[in-house]
Recover the amino acids of this structure.
């Protein structure tokens, strides 16, 4: 029953999206706006297919920046979370700094990274790390804090060390929060790389958009936005798939098997 409801809601979402595209197409075709202001969706789609070789190189650069920053942020967030969870002093020192760091808009730091590290990949990777680090760290910390203390005490009574407690109790209990943090970070990571490229870069989808903007090729700008959106969706789907593989018990919690 729940599955049918989800299918119905998804159907209406798709229908609503198609309706928006249809209205956009009609408005563009009537000539209400010049093509360089608002190209039709079909024109954007055809531009992506025709000019994909132009996007390809910049797209690869953006993917490299995104994945590098995301993976480094994940490792750093994991180490930081374990240290903060294990040692109260580390938690008390770092937690206020973590919260304060979120009050600084990352985009304002981007020019500094360009000055310090040049126009290569490194500044963009650092921006992605900064954007992804916070949601993953906070999600992991929350997962560790919500671990079942009765089970932890049971392991301690059996002379289990800290490694065993993390392996058998804290890490499994932190997985739902961890994957939620990864999904939030994934949505921001490509945006972070693109912002870094806007501020200063030689290649990447952000640089491609600036070049297209300067030549009033609005269809190519929209095409770049479409590619970034598709890339973000694929990234989240990949994390979803890894989450399902890592947490096979989750579908039992949702009663999905019984409903099938």
């Amino acid at each position: 029953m729940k599955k049918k409801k989800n299918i119905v809601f998804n159907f209406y979402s798709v229908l609503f999206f198609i309706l928006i595209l249809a209205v956009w197409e009609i408005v563009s075709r009537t000539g209400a706006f010049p093509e360089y202001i608002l190209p039709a969706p079909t024109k954007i789609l055809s531009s992506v297919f025709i000019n994909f070789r132009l996007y390809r190189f910049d797209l690869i650069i953006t993917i490299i920046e995104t994945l590098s920053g995301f993976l480094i942020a994940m490792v750093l967030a994991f180490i930081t979370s374990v240290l903060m969870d294990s040692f109260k002093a580390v938690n008390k020192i770092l937690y206020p700094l973590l919260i304060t760091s979120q009050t600084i808009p990352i985009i304002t730091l981007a020019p500094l990274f360009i000055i310090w590290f040049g126009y290569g990949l490194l500044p963009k990777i650092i921006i992605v790390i900064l954007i992804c680090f916070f949601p993953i760290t906070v999600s992991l910390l929350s997962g560790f804090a919500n671990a079942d203390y009765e089970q932890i005490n049971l392991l301690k009574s059996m002379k289990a060390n800290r490694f065993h407690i993390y392996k058998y109790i804290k890490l499994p209990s932190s997985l739902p929060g961890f994957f939620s943090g990864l999904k939030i970070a994934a949505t921001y990571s490509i945006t972070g790389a693109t912002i870094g490229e806007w501020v200063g870069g030689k290649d990447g989808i952000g640089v491609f958009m600036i070049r297209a903007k300067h030549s009033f090729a609005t269809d190519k700008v929209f095409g770049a936005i479409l590619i970034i959106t598709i890339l973000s969706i694929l990234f989240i789907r990949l994390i979803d798939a890894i989450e399902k593989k890592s947490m096979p018990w989750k579908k039992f919690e949702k009663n999905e098997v019984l409903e099938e």
Remarks:
- The longest helix spans residues 162-199.
- The chain has a mean pLDDT of 86.
- The chain has twelve helices and no strands.
